[in-house]
């Protein structure tokens, strides 16, 4: 049974038992040789496409039942998964996708199509890659190491897309505030000039009346 909690950094253990099911230890007993109980053929360690034969251990698994004791020998084979394939096909591409999504930080905030296209494309690519990884594995009820890596990458990419949305919203809010401020200043200037013009007209009218009164008084004299 595979244990995939550390996948793809996992080490799988295969147990092989050799036992007698018909004869008890009174009739037959298995014993390992003291020197080199297991011989490994040259090149066998690298013969598997996805695993490396890292270690082989021996043990005893003699069982005792109601009918007697049965001799048993156990071989424990440890297989280490080759990591180079996953490094080139999964870890480096996913890291590059995160780096590409962060390029949007250096794009102008007004370049909406470019930033949205970059963020959505990297997010969909990362999701497709995650689906491809899980399609080649049996469904398990626990979280794998590769799930944590993919989840963190998706969080970084989604965070970059969310950052753009927040920056764009904040920029639009600032633009609206600046527009309202400019309109308020224009209205203040308009009221100022209008009040100044009315005061100038009143002064002109007052001056004309004074001039007429002074002329009338001089005529009477």
From TrEMBL:
Q: Which GO terms describe its cellular component?
A: plasma membrane
Where do the coiled-coil regions begin and end? none
Q: Which residues form the Neurotransmitter-gated ion-channel ligand-binding domain?
A: 4-80
Looking up CDD domains in the UniProt record yields:
LGIC_TM_anion (cd19049)
What are the protein's UniProt keywords? Cell membrane, Ion channel, Ion transport, Membrane, Signal, Transmembrane, Transmembrane helix, Transport
Domain of life the protein comes from? Eukaryota
Q: Which Gene3D superfamilies match?
A: Neurotransmitter-gated ion-channel ligand-binding domain, Neurotransmitter-gated ion-channel transmembrane domain
Q: How does it sit in the membrane?
A: Multi-pass membrane protein
> Where does the Neurotransmitter-gated ion-channel transmembrane domain start and stop, copy by copy?
90-191
Query: Where is this chain primarily localised?
Result: membrane
- InterPro entries in alphabetical order: GABAA/Glycine_rcpt, Neur_chan_lig-bd, Neur_chan_lig-bd_sf, Neur_channel, Neuro-gated_channel_TM_sf, Neuro_actylchol_rec, Neurotrans-gated_channel_TM
State what protein this is by name: Neurotransmitter-gated ion-channel transmembrane region
Species source reads Oesophagostomum dentatum (Nodular worm)
């Amino acid at each position: 049974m595979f244990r995939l909690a550390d996948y793809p950094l996992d080490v799988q253990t295969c147990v092989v038992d050799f036992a007698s099911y018909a004869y008890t230890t009174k009739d037959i007993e298995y014993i390992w040789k003291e020197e080199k109980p297991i011989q490994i053929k040259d090149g066998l360690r690298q013969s598997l496409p996805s695993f490396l034969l890292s270690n082989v251990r021996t043990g005893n698994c003699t069982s005792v039942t109601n009918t007697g004791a049965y001799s048993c020998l156990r071989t424990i084979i440890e297989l280490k998964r080759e990591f180079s394939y996953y490094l080139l096909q999964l870890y480096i591409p996913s890291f590059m996708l995160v780096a590409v999504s962060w390029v949007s930080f250096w794009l102008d905030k007004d370049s909406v199509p470019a930033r949205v296209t970059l963020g959505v494309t990297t997010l969909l690519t990362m999701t497709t890659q995650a689906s491809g990884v899980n399609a080649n594995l049996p469904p398990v009820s626990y979280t794998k190491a590769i799930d944590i890596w993919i989840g963190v990458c998706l969080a970084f990419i989604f965070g970059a897309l969310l950052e753009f949305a927040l920056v764009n919203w904040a920029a639009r809010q600032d633009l609206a505030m600046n527009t309202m401020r400019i309109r308020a200043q224009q209205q203040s200037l308009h009221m100022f000039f209008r009040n100044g013009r009315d005061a100038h007209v009143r002064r002109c009218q007052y001056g004309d009346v004074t001039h007429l009164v002074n002329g009338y008084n001089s005529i009477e004299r």
